[in-house]
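Review form for a predicted model. The reviewer records the input and the model, then writes brief findings.
Reviewer: anonymous (R2)
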Amino acid sequence: MDEKRFAGGFTLVETAMVMLILSLLLGGLLQPLSIQRENLQRRETQEQLERIHEALLGYTLVHGHLPCPDRSNTGREERQGTGCVGDKNGSVWHGRLPWVTLGVGEQDAWHNRFTYAVAEPFADSSKAPWPAFTQVTAGAVEVVHGIDHTPAVVFSHGANGLGAVSAQGVSQSAAVSVAERENTDGDNRFILAPYHNDSVQGFDDQLVWVSPYLLANRLLLAGRLKPWSGRDENE
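Model under review:
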């Protein structure tokens, strides 16, 4: 009987053991694959952010000012007269990246829009081309662990997508961690933190900002900005 049982196939217990072993093996293989996939998506998104950075610099060289944010998910900047319209906190405008206006990709690797914030004077066409850059004119946007003063910041909300707006215009769930909440609270302060995969205090946002010094240098080389004499123009 025993010989026929083994010759005829596995018992239920043996089949269950085989399935358990296979599931453990498969789980061990899938986890590294998921990590590899996210790493690939993060690299892809970082490359997009670098292209966006260059597009913002190029736009400024042509127009003398940065674009306004997109707030209605059209991909186009929303401007009224010489300034922006939409959500503003203090002197910083908030919204989505105007990807159509800039001619860049419309979404990150997780199919969400890039968030964009710009300091008011730098998006005001009546101030273009800008005067010299000083501590005051370097920009009201602050990136903690990045740069104290910058004209603009762009970021992806990462794989978790918390706080983002999808390509279809749907608002995703609110951010959970302290750092990611800071990046979505609508003020002038943003945080650059190390990647940390945690459901409570995780951080997977990816940021890029416009350096006021690099921007000034590009404008000077293009003849769009006068060298600063060390004195305020109103003196």
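Findings: Residues 12-63 form the longest helix (52 residues).
Further findings: The first strand starts at residue 79 and ends at 80.
Recommendation: see findings above.
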